[in-house]
Amino acid sequence: TRRPKSATGNDGHLITGSVSLAKLNQLPTASFNATNGCYRTENQRYAHISCSGSTSVTNLYAYNYAMGFWHEIVTGSSNSSVVVGNNQHQIVDINGADWVAITSGSGVQVVTLAFSTF
């Protein structure tokens, strides 16, 4: 892609977060959809996550068919959770993930998600 592509197919669309890693792992693959907070990556390399207002992202999860389970994506040598703070944008390497999901530390979700190959 020449620019990040929205996870929902519509620019500026807000996404729904997932409840928890445990709940994600209880979903059958047929239930992976935006309603359940699951977004298909279409084999893109990077996730672009943006939070507006007082919203923050507290975790990023990945699913790939070869593994068969959801796992948390961590960053750095300390294996820290992916955290995107209020009014921040972060680009995360999701190479190999077929699906991603986030959890948010806010009751009101104002998170946008896009994918790119660069």
What does this structure look like?
It is a single chain. With 118 residues, the protein is mainly β. It has one helix at residues 21-26, and strands at 5-6, 39-40, 46-51, 57-63, 70-72, 74-75, 80-81, 89-93, 99-104, 111-116. A four-stranded antiparallel beta sheet has the order 1-10-3-8, with no helix packed on it. It has a four-stranded antiparallel beta sheet with strand order 2-9-4-5. The protein is built from one helix and ten strands; from the N terminus they run βαβββββββββ.
Placed side by side, the strands forming the largest sheet appear as: 1-10-3-8
Span between termini: 8 Å
Shape designation: globular
Radius of gyration, in Å, reads 13 Å
Number of E-type strands: 10
Structural class by SSE content = mainly beta
Helix content: under 10%
Mean pLDDT: 92
The proportion of strand residues reads 25-35%
Chain-wise SSE layout:
Layout: E1 5-6, H1 21-26, E2 39-40, E3 46-51, E4 57-63, E5 70-72, E6 74-75, E7 80-81, E8 89-93, E9 99-104, E10 111-116
Antiparallel strand pairs: 1-10, 2-9, 3-8, 3-10, 4-5, 4-9, 6-7
Question: Quick summary of this structure?
Answer:
The chain has 118 residues and is mainly beta.
Characteristic key phrases:
single chain, about 120 residues, mainly beta, four-stranded antiparallel beta sheet, 10 strands, globular
